[in-house]
# Entry
Amino acid sequence: MGTHNRNIIDDGFKAYLVKNATFDGIMEIPNIEKNDEIIIPKDTIPFSLMNLTKDYSEFVAFYEHDIRFADILLSTDEYLDELKNFPGVISPDCSLYRDMPLVLQIANTYMNRAVGHYLQQQGIYVIPNVRWGDERSYTTCELPEKFAFLGIPKHSIVSIGTYGCIQSKINKHYFKEGLKAMLDELKPEVVLVYGGMPESIFADFKERTTFIQYKDWISKKKGIK
# Structure
């Protein structure tokens, strides 16, 4: 095999993203470090629509189809200057579909944390996004670790997204069960919620932390309250 091909393979997982990182658990998920202070975003803006901001007062978020933010995973360093114009970033919301092979769910969790760690190392304020699938990701029923929560500091601030994730009864079930497991494991002081907060999911947990809701981008554009 030629040197050129070896280099392509060797850099396939973007090693620069986790330079100086510490790792969590036997799966070695990169840690996003606990911030010195909790900063509450004024608002959020999708990564793919950053150019529509008027004053750069929002946090950049990734609550949209994965293909719309694939570039940040492939070429993270190319977006540093642009992202530094904003007060902060929520780490990428890489999908954890329940029918997705478990190894890909773990890989997407890794990329969420790896990009978050790298942006943090470059001086950007990062709020960890937490995403889970079915019980395999938030319990130890099949794996020795709740991998959905690896690499995220406890007693701090996290962000979650409900947009597109709670339409059906079964989706609501898994989302609520994962939310309970997340609150038990991470004990966050603040939870940002991108999208709806139906009472059927959130009512049982409102005394456990401070929830702060943000309307999804589509609702904002349509003027939905």
Observations:
- The first helix runs from residue 3 to 10.
